[in-house]
Amino acid sequence: MSLMKFEALVLACYEEDDVLTVALGDNEQSPESYLIITRLDDEDNDSIDEGIGLQTSQSAYEASAAIEKVILHSDRLDVVITPDSHEHFGCSRLEGVFSETVRNTPEKIALLRKYLEAIFNGSKTTLVFS
């Protein structure tokens, strides 16, 4: 199982134009490593999962229904990618390790948890808070 691991110095959770977004990156201005999870509820989607997108620094574009499991730890966020999306992302798992600044900001972690709950509500993705 290949892993893309990076230090998440930046953690952002926001809603814009009805799109819920969670973003982790190693730099605020021009990150080399990042992951972005989005949810847009659209009546054209066949399932909730089709409205949930994942993009990383390793992928050329966002892919939907690509997340099998998300585990929020106190010090990191693990994202397990569905087997049919391994090739697209070049890995089977992503791990954003929170920087000390992020870890020491409990309200940011609490907001991340709230956004993850909203993004994956009703989806097939397993969401774990450990």
Supply database-style keywords.
five-stranded mixed β-sheet, five-stranded antiparallel β-sheet, 10 strands, 18% helix, globular
Can you describe what's shown?
This protein is of the alpha+beta class. It has one domain (3-129). Helices cover 18% and strands 43% of the residues. It has three helices and ten strands, in the order ββββββββαβααβ. A five-stranded mixed sheet has the order 1-9-8-7-10. The protein has a five-stranded antiparallel sheet with strand order 2-3-4-5-6, covered by helices on one side. The radius of gyration is 14 Å and the shape is globular. The two termini are 21 Å apart. The model has no long low-confidence stretch (mean pLDDT 96).
Summarize the structure.
With 130 residues, the protein is an alpha+beta fold.
Would you count the extended β strands for me?
A: 10
Q: Work out the helicity level.
A: 10-25%
Average pLDDT confidence is 96
Question: Strands of the biggest beta sheet: in what spatial order?
Answer: 1-9-8-7-10
Structural class: alpha+beta
| Pattern of helices and strands | EEEEEEEEHEHHE
Radius of gyration: 14 Å
Poorly predicted parts: none
Number of helices: 3
| Beginning-to-end CA distance, first to last residue | 21 Å
Provide the number of structural domains. 1
Main sheet overview: 5 strands, mixed
- Overall 3D geometry? globular
Looking at how many chains there are and whether they match, the oligomeric state comes to single chain
Strand content: 35-45%
